Amino acid sequence: MFSGSMVALATPMYADGGLDWDSLHNLVEWHIEQGTNAIVAVGTTGESATLDVNEHLEVIRRVVDQVAGRIAVIAGTGANSTSEAIELTETASRCGADACLLVTPYYNKPTQEGLFQHYKAVAKAVAIPQILYNVPGRTAVDMLPDTVRRLAAVSNIVGIKEATGDLERARDLIETLPEGFAVYSGDDATALELMLAGGRGNISVTANVAPAAVAQVCAAALRGDADTARTIDQRIQILHQVLFVESNPIPVKWALREMGRIDGGIRLPLTSLSPEHHATVREALRTAGVL
């Protein structure tokens, strides 16, 4: 089972929006060197909504080929069309991804039964391990715990990225889901406490800029060393906050550019970080010791 620090990798782009393959290669190597346990390729932080299908799948292919089994690769294959989600998941499986992460269908606001049938259909169509992804603040649909429990009975649905930041909900899921079904944090600010409560890891935005620290927090939390985990996490708490001063991935891509890791490209309708936030993000990077 996948565990630990799983970076929701930003997709590097040039200023004109073209994909920057060299920077992608360098980011992947950096994450492996820094102790990241898994890479999520073209999740929502990777701007899956603005990459076309060919670009989306090419990023997955390249990351899988480069990683070459050194760590896990989880492909973002969610969509608000069930047939599209199946197509993406099938291709990611053929590319050699270890698992797929599927965000709840956004905008069309399915019922709980619709969510159940959507995920069941994808899981039935493609045998690869699949991780549910609940982030109602971005999708306008909330997959409730009872629906998650129903889906946990599907053999190749193996976990959920719970990004509400609601620790009570997370604890309820951890306590009531079958043994072996993983609950992952999708909220950096509360990830440590979720792992101490029995969560299996953190699918992290902060890991984009502080991969070693996030990996150390996850490792300490998973072995039950709360004091060490909290000491390290305290140093990067400021990043958990400022990397969301504007819609993700705007701040994290600006931060990576400031660190010299990528160019500044981001695709419309997202725009580069507003100038009034530059000093705030830059100071946070310095405080966290990554700039």
From TrEMBL:
Q: Which reaction does it catalyse?
A: L-aspartate 4-semialdehyde + pyruvate = (2S,4S)-4-hydroxy-2,3,4,5-tetrahydrodipicolinate + H2O + H(+)
User: Which InterPro entries does the entry mention?
Assistant: Aldolase_TIM, DapA, DapA-like, Schiff_base-form_aldolases_AS, Schiff_base-form_aldolases_CS
Active site (UniProt): 133 (proton donor/acceptor), 161 (schiff-base intermediate with substrate)
Taxonomically, which superkingdom? Bacteria
Q: Where is pyruvate bound in this sequence?
A: 45, 203
* EC annotation from Swiss-Prot or TrEMBL: 4.3.3.7
For whether the record's keyword set contains DNA repair, the answer is no
What keywords is this UniProt entry annotated with? Amino-acid biosynthesis, Cytoplasm, Diaminopimelate biosynthesis, Lyase, Lysine biosynthesis, Schiff base
Give the location in the cell.
Answer: Cytoplasm
Q: Annotated pathway, please?
A: Amino-acid biosynthesis; L-lysine biosynthesis via DAP pathway; (S)-tetrahydrodipicolinate from L-aspartate: step 3/4
Family matches, as Gene3D superfamilies: Aldolase class I
Q: Site: Part of a proton relay during catalysis. Where?
A: 44, 107
> Key word S-adenosyl-L-methionine present in the record?
no
Q: If you read the UniProt record, what top EC class would you report for this enzyme, in one word?
A: lyase
The UniProt function text for this chain reads: Catalyzes the condensation of (S)-aspartate-beta-semialdehyde [(S)-ASA] and pyruvate to 4-hydroxy-tetrahydrodipicolinate (HTPA).
Provide the family line. Belongs to the DapA family.
Quaternary form? Answer: Homotetramer; dimer of dimers.
Name-wise, this protein is 4-hydroxy-tetrahydrodipicolinate synthase
Q: Which organism is it from?
A: Microbulbifer aestuariivivens
